[in-house]
Structures are given as C-alpha cells and as structure tokens.
Design a protein that fits this description.
2 domains, DNA polymerase, domain 1, Rossmann fold, alpha/beta, six-stranded parallel beta sheet, about 230 residues
Length: about 230
C-alpha cells in the first residue's frame, strides 16, 4: 500500500456539521425570540463563512471569528447582544451534536486496522474533542490536532509542520489528507507537499484547486487506499 498515514478532517467529512449547526442555531435563535428561517440561517452562514475565510488567510484570529460572528448576525436582525456570551451559549448547543456522516464509524474502524489515523481540524479544541468522544470515534485516531491548540490553521504550511513534527516516523510521500474543503484541506495538503483526497458528496466543481483523488462516498476510501 502506498500510504501509511491518513489525516482526516472532521466537519462535513466524518461528522455531519450541517446537522449539528442547524440544531444549535435553531436553539440559539429561539432563545433570542427568533424563528429559524432559511433567510436567517443563510444570513448567519454568510457572515460566518466570510470570517472563517479571513481566518484561513491569516487576516484575523480565531477568537475574532467566534467572538464577533453572532454580534454581526444579530445586528442584521436589529438585536444588540453580548457576542462572546452568545458564542458560549452556541458552543454548548454545538457540543451536543455528533451525528456521523456517511457511515464514517465503519470506514474508520476498517482503515484503523491498516493505517495510522490522525485528526486535522480547524476549530475549538473542547468542542471537537467532545464531539469525537460522543460519536465514539476517538479510539480510531492516534492523535487529534485542532488549530486552536497549534497556533496555526489549515491551510497554513505551519499548521502541517506542527502536525508532522508530532507524528513518529512520518513520511510525506506516505501521507494523504482526506477532507471536504478545497480551500482548507486540499490546498493545505498541497502546501504541505502531501497527496490529497477530496470528499465531494455534492459533486461540486473543484475549480483551480485540483486534488490528487476525488470521492463521493467515504466507502470509496477502502479500495482506493488499499491498492
């Protein structure tokens, strides 16, 4: 087998972040007297996406993302809030979400018998650890690298340098990253000098960022990696 080390993204790769986010936003909006409508959800997601893009580009810090996003959103609804306090409430709702994506537990259980698996994820350390624990996925991974703990984030090369420095006997030519984000996972893998597998269940167009491989189902990893 060509690869020995597999780096897995979390959100919308092995855990269904969309479902988790929907439930958390619904609870949060209702706590502030707002019904969860498609328009409100889209408004928040646009603000959130723009802030995370700035974070990936190194323009703002993670703390700025999470402490400003709800203040900006509720402002669009004519509501003034304590943004960091709302973030804490949202985090509690978010921590409860750990729905598996695409039978990821079965795929990881099989892969863990043949490869060394690691988590590489941008986000809040407490949240990601708790969700992986609750989903019973933690035992499949040898280590978990969350951007908050590293001081860097995907797609920065420094993030991957941090990861590689902490994986015993790792070889880049034997390492591949699996993730759903072109700008975070696939670009990050390219900047780090490793192969990439783009998990693309919605059959999006990859544009300028070209992955080494592309899959629509996680089950496709088994034959792809074991040849």
């Amino acid at each position: 087998m060509k690869y020995k080390t597999l780096l897995f993204d979390v959100d919308d790769t092995i855990l269904d972040f969309q479902d988790t986010e929907d439930q958390a936003l619904k609870a949060l909006f209702e706590a502030h007297g707002l019904e969860m409508t498609p328009e409100r959800k889209q408004s928040y997601q646009t603000i959130n996406h723009d802030l995370w893009q700035q974070f990936e580009q190194g323009k703002i810090t993670r703390d700025q993302v999470i402490n400003e996003r709800f203040g900006l959103f509720f402002e669009t609804q004519g509501i003034q809030v304590d943004s960091p306090a709302v973030e804490l409430a949202y985090r509690e709702f978010l921590n409860e979400g750990h729905k598996l994506l695409d039978n990821s537990d079965e795929v990881l259980a099989e892969l863990a018998q043949h490869f060394d698996l690691y988590v590489v994820t941008n986000g809040v350390s407490e949240t990601q650890h708790r969700r992986l624990e609750d989903a019973k996925l933690k035992p499949y991974f040898r280590d978990i690298f969350v951007s908050e703990d590293t001081g860097y984030q995907k797609p920065m090369k420094e993030y991957f340098d941090y990861v590689f420095a902490r994986i015993p006997n790792v070889k880049k030519q034997e390492t591949v990253i699996i993730g759903d984000s072109l700008t975070s996972d696939i670009l990050g893998g390219q900047l780090a000098g490793i192969d990439t597998i783009w998990f693309n269940p919605k059959k999006k167009n990859s544009g300028e960022i070209q992955p080494t491989y592309e899959i629509e189902r996680l089950q496709q990893l088994l034959p792809l990696l074991q040849h």
